[in-house]
From TrEMBL:
Pfam families per UniProt: CBS (PF00571)
Signal peptide: none
All copies of domain CBS, residue ranges: 11-71, 85-138
Protein name: CBS domain-containing protein
Alphabetical keyword list: CBS domain
Amino acid sequence: MRALIPVSDIMTKDVIALNRNDDLERAEMLFKRYRIKHIPVVCTDVVIGMLSFTDLQKISLAEASADEHDVNTVVYNSYTIEQVMTKQVVTIPPSTSIKEAATILSNSPFHALPVVEEGMLIGIITTRDLLKFYSKNF
């Protein structure tokens, strides 16, 4: 059955990641440049957290300001990535079935799972990846 295919077959392998020492302005730039919603935070390729675009929106005070960039800069400089990121990250091995990943995501408040092998980040699977797979195959 197609749903038993491992996530390694459909995950994003070229993962955009942040280091714990990066700043939130860099995070915002990556979210916008790559049009992504989730970025794993790593320390030497080991996942220590997850930052979502929604996390940035929660701390941003400027929604429609003419000086939005300036206000965001001040706000972003008030926090570190480690203060904003989710620290309790659920990770999965590359052998996890697509069905199991879909079950985890459908029963969780988050929308991305870092894929880890031998403790190291090797990919990421998101609800968008799963929807693309299911729309092509079912």
